[in-house]
Design a protein that fits this description.
Blueprint lengths: L5 E10 L2 E9 L3 E6 L5 E5 L3 E9 L2 E8 L4 E7 L3 H11 L5 E2 L11 E5 L2 E6 L2 E7 L3 E6 L3 E6 L11 E5 L10 H12 L11 E10 L2 E7 L3 E5 L4 E5 L3 E8 L5 E14 L2 E11 L3 E5 L4 H8 L6 E5 H13 L3 E2 L13 E5 L2 E7 L3 E5 L4 E4 L3 E9 L2 E11 L4 E8 L3 H10 L30 H16 L1 H6 L22 H11 L5 H32 L17 H16 L5 H14 L4 H23 L4 H37 L5 H6 L3 H16 L8 H7 L5 H18 L1
Parallel strand pairs: 5-8, 19-24
Antiparallel strand pairs: 1-2, 1-7, 2-3, 3-4, 5-6, 6-7, 9-10, 10-11, 12-13, 13-14, 15-16, 15-21, 16-17, 17-18, 19-20, 20-21, 22-23, 25-26, 26-27, 27-28, 29-30, 30-31
Helix pairs in contact: 9-15, 10-11, 10-12, 13-15, 13-17, 15-17, 16-17
């Protein structure tokens, strides 16, 4: 018993020398092929089929369909289903399907037969190759030679552009075989010639792609774009789809024609023709047909006189003549009340139209994406801004189209439309809502929080919680402003200003400008000291962190659910993937774990293992486990704190030694090495201040003062050396 239909998913159709993948379905009334790349559906009625053959091709079998009108269709990719197809064709099409034998000799001489629009080259009554004549663009003849030229197919990896036939002539023949050969080819060749009158002519149409003003002339089998520089003749068979889309301003209309193969202008190929019309431009056309012809050819779909807006008249004529559906906008209505979404693609502004079966973007470059091509869509923030967002479409082939700078008000409408079409949103959470939905809050409204910032803060808080122990140990124990021996205690001394003033008065008093200079220097000294303290504290706190030693006798923590599952399935993964490495096993296991839906078994095992670990740890501590490590940690803390106290008590002694050496009139090695410390630098600056305030006269000679000082006055001697340092600094 045969089925009512046969369906094959990996079948290729031969189109001008290229194999186009798609799906083939054989029903009781027709053979339907859908092109996977373009989405074009080609239907062959069973009543129009004259002959069906099963023939061998490279690596697979092919189906040869010869039509009553002389056309030839070939489909490749069948694998040993000839008997099943033969039974189906016998039952529903009432045709006997036989295998067509091909010549394998490789000879380049033979006999040419013309059958319909097919040229067959036979060697010893077996077909060597066949040429569909509708692929021929031109045929030229010579004395004993005929040259056949073909249309170029950009999708074919290798294109056959020309073929030459040598035809011997005999004196006995009444007609010239060369001329007869050429006439047979040209009769069925796809040679476009603008003969006869056009059905309709539209003058000075504004074309965006290709750019310029063109006259559009519609003929029976093709239409022509006639411009000042370029002239295009486009067969109606190359038109895939027609689109009529309103502009966002509601005053203009886009008329888009999708082409396969595209038209070429130099090295540029145009897969879409985009024209723009004003809605208030109207026209009136009278078609060169009688009422009987209109009824017979076009089934009363056209009237003899057509009038109305230019875009409407052109769309109606193209729809009927070309026999293609005219696609308009779907049910989507954006925030602005129009079906157009303003956006940018490849740094060019345009409009994205969500249709009933896909998306189309106009105009530079035009893009048409069908829903069946889409793998997933994604919403992303546009450069960190909350005023707009990006809409990404990823195809099953891996190609990604990014439409950027979409207004945030369009988000809800677009998301609802995608949800209604059941498209997969890539960044949708478990609750069915996209993670970016809350990110498009009004940035001008301070009351509304930034969801993106909140998410980042939450992630940072989780990382900080894991390092609580380290953060507690990083407290700087050296910083103690209440300790008298600390070198920073004077920064927190409430009487520090009065003390400095008393010192200055004891040195002979000073002017108001000197007091201001003192305050300024004091402020700078305080800032430098705080900066230096911050530098010293950071590495010290990190280096003095406790290094915890692991206790080998303590119970081990339980593994995660993933690790338990991976350990149980590791051998199975290795068997299923022989030769896989350890890292690849982990990667493969991660992918399998992510796809695993029911994880309750392993989560229960983890919960049980945690309970056992808690009980074992409790028993371990009660038995005295870990006491040795705690003791060693305490001893380490005491030792480190003792070193710190010793260092603190030693720092003021060094400062005193430095001052006494200044008074003696020379600098030792110890003084020079300690001069960079904070305490030594403070003493030096304090002595500078006391000297400046106690000089008594601003016009005195500092060098003479230095020579008059005696050894019995170390304080004045010290200040004199500081005055010399000041003079050297001034000269520098």
């Amino acid at each position: 018993m045969t089925a009512d239909f046969l369906e094959y998913s990996s079948i290729s159709s031969e189109v001008r020398g290229a194999l186009c993948p798609g799906k083939l379905k054989m029903t009781d009334s027709a053979i339907v092929f859908k092109n996977e790349k373009t989405g074009k559906v080609e239907q062959i009625n069973a009543s129009d089929i004259e002959l069906l053959n099963y023939q061998r091709s490279v690596g697979s079998y092919g189906l040869r369909v010869f039509m009553k009108n002389g056309l030839l269709h070939r489909f490749m990719g069948f694998t040993g289903d000839e008997q099943k197809i033969a039974d189906f064709v016998k039952k529903h099409y009432k045709l006997d399907m036989l295998e067509k034998e091909l010549s394998m000799r490789g000879w380049n001489w033979g006999t040419v037969h013309f059958k319909g629009s097919v040229l067959s080259f036979d060697v010893e009554s077996k077909t060597s190759f066949e040429i569909p004549l509708n692929h021929v663009s031109q045929c030229n003849s010579g004395k004993n030679e005929v040259t056949v030229e073909f249309h170029r197919n950009d999708d074919a990896p290798v294109s056959l552009m020309e073929m030459r036939f040598h035809i011997p002539t005999t004196e006995s023949s009444e007609t010239d075989p060369v001329e007869s050969f050429q006439e047979q080819v040209m009769r069925q060749a796809s040679v476009i010639s603008a003969s006869g009158d056009a059905i309709a002519i539209f003058r000075e149409i504004h074309c965006l792609t290709p750019r310029g003003r063109y006259d559009i002339k519609v003929f029976q089998s093709f239409f022509q774009l006639h411009g000042k520089t370029y002239d295009f003749k486009i067969p109606t068979s190359s038109v895939l789809r027609l689109f009529l889309l309103p502009h966002k301003d509601n005053r203009q209309m886009f008329f888009v024609i999708s082409l396969d193969p595209p038209i070429k202008q130099g090295q540029t190929r145009y897969h879409f023709l985009v024209t723009l019309f004003q809605m208030d431009d109207e026209t009136s056309i009278e078609l060169p047909f009688t009422e009987e012809e209109l009824k017979e050819k076009y089934e009363d779909k056209l009237t003899k006189e057509l009038s109305g807006p230019v875009y409407e008249v052109l769309g109606k004529i193209m729809k009927v003549i070309i026999n293609r559906k005219l696609t308009g906008p779907g049910t989507f209505i954006g925030h602005s009340g129009t079906p157009a979404i303003g956006c940018s693609y490849k740094a060019a502004a345009g409009y994205l139209y969500p249709l009933e079966r896909g998306f189309i973007y106009v105009h530079k470059p035009p893009v048409h994406i069908r829903f069946e091509e889409i793998s997933s869509v994604n919403f992303a923030r546009s450069g960190g801004s909350t005023r707009s967002f990006d809409f990404e479409i990823e195809l099953k082939t891996g190609t990604i189209y990014t439409f950027s700078s979409i207004e945030k008000e369009e988000y809800t409408k677009l998301f609802d439309f995608i949800s209604s079409k059941k498209l997969h949103v890539k960044n949708t959470g478990k609750d069915g809502k996209t993670n970016y939905k809350d990110d498009f809050a009004d940035s001008d409204n301070e009351a509304e929080p930034d969801a993106y910032l909140a998410r980042v803060k939450a992630e940072g808080k989780e990382r900080d919680d894991d390092d609580d122990d380290d953060s507690e140990e990083s407290t700087d124990e050296d910083f103690n402003p209440n300790q008298q021996e600390s070198d920073v205690a004077d920064e927190f001394d409430s009487n520090v200003e009065s003390t400095s003033e008393d010192d200055s008065e004891g040195g002979g008093g000073g002017s108001g400008s000197d007091a201001e200079a003192k305050q300024k220097k004091k402020k700078e000294k305080k800032e430098k000291k705080e900066k230096k303290e911050r530098k010293e504290k950071t590495p010290k706190s990190r280096s003095e962190k406790k290094s915890k030693k692991k206790d080998s006798g303590a119970p081990k923590r339980p593994a995660t659910a993933f690790m338990m599952w991976l350990n149980a399935t590791r051998e199975q993964i290795r068997k299923d993937n022989p030769g896989i490495s350890i890292t690849e096993i982990a990667k493969k296991g991660g992918e399998m774990w992510k796809e695993l839906k029911d994880k309750s078994e392993w989560e229960a095992k983890v919960a049980k293992a945690k309970e056992e670990y808690v009980e074992a740890m409790k028993a371990y501590k009660e038995a005295g486990g870990g006491a040795a490590n705690n003791a060693s940690d305490d001893e380490g803390d005491k030792a480190s704190s003792g070193k710190k106290r010793k260092k603190e008590s030693a720092s003021p002694k060094k400062a005193v030694a430095a001052v006494s050496m200044k008074g003696s009139g020379f600098k030792s090695k110890e003084y020079i090495s300690d001069d960079d410390s904070s305490s030594g630098g403070d003493e030096k600056k304090e002595s500078k201040k006391s000297k400046k305030s106690g000089s008594g006269s601003e016009d005195g000679n500092k060098k003479e003062k230095k020579s008059k000082k005696s050894d019995s006055e170390p304080e004045e001697s010290g200040s004199g050396s500081e005055a010399e340092d000041e003079e050297e600094e001034g000269s520098d």
